[in-house]
Amino acid sequence: MIAPRSQPRPALVPELNITSLPASLAFWRDLLGFRILYDRPEQGFAAIERDGVEFMLEEYDTGPAERLGIWTTGAREKPYGRGINFEITVKDVDMLLDALRQASWPIFFGPEERWYRIDASQETGVHQFLVQDPDGYLLRLSQSLGRRPLAT
Predict the structure, then answer these.
(1) Are 29 and 66 contained in the same domain?
(2) Which of 27, 44, 76 is the last residue of a domain?
(3) For residue 118, which of 73, 74, 131, 144 sits 20 to 30 Å off, Cα-Cα?
(4) What pLDDT, on the 0 to 100 scale, is given for residue 5?
């Protein structure tokens, strides 16, 4: 089911090259709760959203042959997206952890509670974990714990 956009389009929407749209949707939609904004299944493409976070998913080798080369910057080897992680702020990290564990999906790291210094007097806290999607993109799912005075 295609869902209308609830907010203006974000200024940054990463487009992830994937190997299988059905496998990616089983992860992103069914486990993480993203919804499809619009899709072109015949082209292996879907735009997805959750709480204002948007991604586009597109299978490799689905566009016109003359355009494929401009989107490829190197060898296609899993895990894709090496050197980047996407922090996605969510309201309930534990709910997502439960869904992933019930699906026997491996957790890459965590969960953990971590506090980060943001200035000379404050730090901000998160409850977070890392998971990889079917193609190896690294996602950091993070729930805010608020701010507090800098621990000394």
Answers:
(1) yes
(2) 76
(3) 131
(4) 65
Q: Is the pLDDT of residue 113 over 70?
A: yes
- Based on the fold, state whether residues 41 and 103 are members of the same structural domain: no
CB neighbours of 78 closer than 8 A, spacing ≥ 6? 135, 136
Contacts of 130 (CB under 8 A, 6+ apart): 85, 107, 108, 109, 110, 138, 139, 140, 141
Residues 48, 36: contact at Cβ < 8 Å? yes
- CA proximity to 116, closest of 76, 147, 84: 147
Tokens read off for 131: 């998971």
Which residue range(s) make up the domain with 93? 78-152
Q: Tell me, what DSSP letter sits at residue 69?
A: G
